[in-house]
Amino acid sequence: MGGETSSLRIFRVPQSYFLSMSAGSWLRRASVHPIKTLSLPWSADPTGTESRSILAWFAIAGELALFIALVYLLRLETTALVRVLLVALAGWCVHYFLPQRYRLPFFVLLSFAAIAAVFANLGPNWHHWRFEGLIDAAWIVAIGLVLIGIVHLPIAFGWRVLALVGAGCGLAAARMDWIAIPWTRAVWPVLASMFMFRLIVYAYEMRRDQRMATVSERLAYFFMLPNVCFPLFPVVDFRTFRSSYYNADRHYIYQTGVQWMFRGAIHLICYRIVYQRFVIDAADVHNQIELLQFIIWPFLLYLKVSGTFHIITGILHLFGFNLPETHNLYFLSSSFTDFWRRINIYWKDFIMKIVYYPLYFRFRGWGESVALVSATLLAFLATWLLHNYQWFWLRGTWVFTWNDFLFWMILAVLVTINAHYEMRHGRTRRLRGGALSWNGALQTAGRTIGVFVVICLLWSFWSASSVPQWLSVFDTVGVEAPGKTTPALVLVAVAAIIGIPALALARGGADRQYSFRRSVASVGVCGLIAVCISLPVVHDRLGETVSTAMADIRAPNLNSRDNANLERGYYENLVNVSAFNPELWIVYGQRRDEGWGNLHKTPLSEFTGALPTIYLRPLSQADYKGKRVHINRWGMRDQDYEKIPAPGTLRIAIVGSSHVFGEGVADEEIFEGLLERRLNEQAADSGYRDYEVLNFAVGGYVPLDVLAITEDRVLAFKPKYIFYFEHTALIPRMLKRLATAIQNGSAYRYNFVSDIVRESGIDPSADREVLQRKLTPYGERLLRSIYSRIVEAAKREGVGVFWIYLPRPDERTSPELERRLAAEAGFNVLDLSNVYDGHDWRTLLVAPWDDHPNAAGHRLVADKLYEVLQQHRDLIPLNLAVAPHKEEQ
Question: What pTM did the predictor assign?
């Protein structure tokens, strides 16, 4: 990392070549900055012992307000964080003027207030307050006080440890639902993040009998203000927490916190862009470019963790805790030991203190090399076990997988080899103010690129669903080569993106003198610009590119069709609260408690184990996504019909998935029913006695399910026309379903599936992800076969078939491949791509986290579909009236 050109050989101090800088050394490094007290005309402190400036107060408060506005407008985190930030802003404005002896108790009170505000959903709209959440908040505080009290029992330390283990076992039994508890499941992740590691650190420090900590210090350490809205929380060291408290000029500490919070926001913005635009599933990897993308994106998603950790430590800085950085340019690590020193620094310090140091000095009598290798490998083994321990407390399950174990062991070997080399040969350091030579800087940049590539490979392996699935990605690379020069150009681009900053860092380009005024000006101006661009009224006028990019950043999650495939990395599964604790997600204000789950988990559906995968249960009803859903006697979400249409009735059957089924809207609000009513309004002038539109759509259906239900049920109802609605991302979803159908044998009812299985040599007993990858080259052929079979079955019965493109409200791509295949198969193709034009798509969603159209969206679809049917009278002679809709009249 940084300074002089000379190489330093180090043999005796183990932390210098393994885990290097402790938290204390980071603080010493920070103190190198010349910190200037802001001298402004007005001072509220007549003694002069501590600078106070009303202008500095206004500047920092203004920056915090801009940060809160940015988080709110871009939805960078949950609404719980917004509430905590508002508590922090109000509290800091008072905290600034308090005498120092009152600040820590005030911080503790603010922390308790934040817990109450989050769990009780306290806010300006008192109708949404959840007073029952105060009970959960009280339990968190009560259990925490009991655990802290156990550490201070007047008995031998060994007995206290046993008491803690016993309490932990009791809580673990409750976590696994073996014991009835009086609090909700939302308590567990928050309680665990406060105590699962900090209790270990705290007990360790108490055993060393440091100066007695005050009650305020203990409570502040465990109930840190931002903890309630971040279940994945950095492991803050207790000694560092105490020693860093107001250990420098407070304006410097406050402004550093603000800077880190905005830096965290930048990380989260980059994370959202990667998450929305760069993520690729293993089954979609066909060439070198996509392989490179598949290798890189899992590591880039770690920006979510580094971003939230920056925000957490930034908030703590606002209240005087001058904590060190949690991450330091980890993408620019020049060796594997350097990577371990730069990423999640607090975890490194924790492992070094609790595991590495005790083991190193225990083994030191056997020689330096033996002690280094043994302590390092065992430290990484402990890291693997503790990550599983963390997973259990946050998610309530265990995650012992080969991917997880091999990731940590491979990284352990790499770090051990690197550390042993540095012990023997030393490592080059660049101290602040110095610079490496051009030759040394180029070598450092080259090593940085190599380490980045290896870490990306390891991270993609760690994030894969299984070892065979990860290995299968490399089997078919090159099937669709994008060109001979393209991969080389991409590799050069990646090397430049990593290498140039690494070169600048090695040459000393990142060093700069600290200035409070310059920091306030730069953060304030950039924050104001970011907030202005985040306003819809502004970015919608800056062009489609900017508006689309802002929509990607504001989107809290990937589209629901991708979540199951792409949310499988270790950290992604811990920061995505909605994936493992719906109760806490409700507390965080991100999701309503009204059956917002998958259709197949409700009483409305019944699993078939064949094709189609599920049917709707006849005559069932249930609340689903906040609406009462009724299923008729035939297993349709529709009114009741006779099986055979009456004479003079024109019957239309519609098939599709969740958008056609009407997820999130009432029975009478689905566009199918609206279209039927509008058709019947003009039936007297059409020559038909009646129109009937039957809704056979089921949420989660893919083309394979549509084919099965068309043959098995739809044609039996004697429709005159079939409308098949689809949107984008069709083939990946279809292949996932087909892989499952091949494994259970239900797909073999279709000869074209049997032919592909035979030609490809697929082993039906293989991992589902591997099957999906093996099927990927046949995706277009499979879809063409399904479409052709639907058309052939319909034509045999004299039924007209229409393939209709119906986009999601937030959809910006068009399914050209699917549209072409449908036309080639014999479908009449209709297009509703501009159905939502002229409307803000955000106002057309059933919920911010759900991309299905709401009632207003369904009205737009019904009107647009009627218009398109009028325009294609030659294809579908429904004898529609040209007169406007009765409501419009």
Answer: 0.77
